[in-house]
Amino acid sequence: MTAPVFPSLTRRRLLAGSASLGLGLSVAPSALFAQSPGQAGVLKYATLGLDTSDPHRHTGSIAVQQCFVEALTSIGVNGGVEPFLAESFEVSADGLTYRFKLRAGVKFHNGDPLTSADIVANIERVKTKVRGGWLVSAMKLVDKVEADGPDGVTLRMTEPYAPLLNLLSELWILSPKSEGWDDTIKTPIGTGPFTFGAWQPKVKFTAPAFPGYWRAGLPVVRAVEFDLRDGADKSLALRAGDLHIASVERDAAEVLKKAGAAEIKTLKDTAWFFLGFNNRRPRAPFDDPRVRRALAHAVDKAALMNFIGGAEGVVTNQLVAPGNLYFDQALHDADPFRRPDLAKAKALLAEAGVKPEDHTIEFVSWQGTYTQIVVQMVRKLGFKVNHQALDDIGAQKRLGQWDWDMNVMSSGPRADIFLRYVRLMSDGPNPVLWGGIQDPALDQLITTAVKQPDAAKRKAAYLEATKRIAEKSYFVVLGHAPDLIAVRKEVRNYEPGFTWACHWASGGVAHAAISG
Predict the structure, then answer these.
(1) Is the separation of the CB atoms in 174 and 55 below 8 Å?
(2) Which residues of the chain have pLDDT under 70?
(3) Label partner for 415 (CA 20 to 30 A): which of 10, 61, 262, 349?
(4) Which residue ranges make up each domain of the chain?
(5) Residues in domain Solute-binding protein family (predicted)?
(6) Non-local CB neighbours of 349 within 8 Å, separated by 6+ positions
(7) CATH match of 13-232+490-514 with 3.40.190.10
(8) Given this model, what pLDDT does residue 331 score?
């Protein structure tokens, strides 16, 4: 499988309706927004959850909140940057100054027009009041942001920051009149095609259509109802017509396809799977890199990735899949864990003086069949395994207690490669899946990559970070597979995007229609 190439953010001038200027940054033409009206109805949608009502404080809930909030930029289906609330933007030759021109006619859900002052207020809020989020590293480098009239914004950086345009796709713009603005927002007022409606955490979220949306003819449906339940059988709900669009596992996808109940599509970027270790408070003997390598040698990566992704599953040792700009073939070919090797695993344990039968691995994962497969592979070495398979919130809570030894997890598509590496930094957001790495040398390698405007040099810096991760055995990448999305036959004009976002500049739930 070939994954989409991440675009190089090497700069300069980007205008709505223009062609890409050789930078890999696609800009949506104005014709993209012309839509014919469709039928009304309630679109029932189930992929990821909603973890907060404050979009500036999210830990990954872009699959829901992007229906009611939008950003200056957006990530298109090819991974390129598209203008969104910004009609156009340009970057100075030194990479320090960004200028945005706002789109005319955009209104918040309370009827107020979007102005440059609102953009400034949102950036200042994230910079000064949000700690540990996705944008914390970028916001530290913002020197000044100011309004240039009612429809212009200038943002100045203290140093170049290559992923900024991509990351701004996750700095959602809210009305400063949103309830809880000075603390934690309880009722977000956005500009999206749908409004923030009734929310039952971990159960359901209903988003009614916004009649004043700035794109004529959108949204098509009168509401989107998001199923937020963990562990619910989405395939049964899809077959019964209780869901229209849902993420599904491969075995369920095959059943749905054979039954003719749904079309099976994929996100355009891949999810990556990995073995994680407790790096914040490791206990013996699982703090020993030899023991960690032994455990990795016990895993049959090819069998596992075939189970997860079928023909589209890819075995590799990198955070990106083959075909990606940042993929390194030489490192891929040198993967020491490409094939299982129980003999080498046992030799490493003997070298470390570890008798597996004397130890119990505290193993945490999400609920899923593939996690049980990994546990069985590890048990072949003789370790006892106490496997705790939990829902999303439960797993992250347990991991954050730092009283475990090992996990197997996955992480989905992101707007920029930096959002894969940022969670490995000492001050990175939501670091629990990777065991809370605290490594100033790794931080510096990632920071060097981010500052580098030259794509080749940026790739080299990220590669050095990957090598350090392997050297320290912080975690072990198993491979990549695309996430599968089942779409019922009566749904028209919907294609999954590059990431989990349910709405972006050139597509998503605003365009979806339901046939009778």
Answers:
(1) yes
(2) 1-39, 59-61, 132-133
(3) 262
(4) 13-232+490-514, 269-482
(5) 81-413
(6) 290, 291, 294, 355, 356, 381
(7) yes
(8) 97
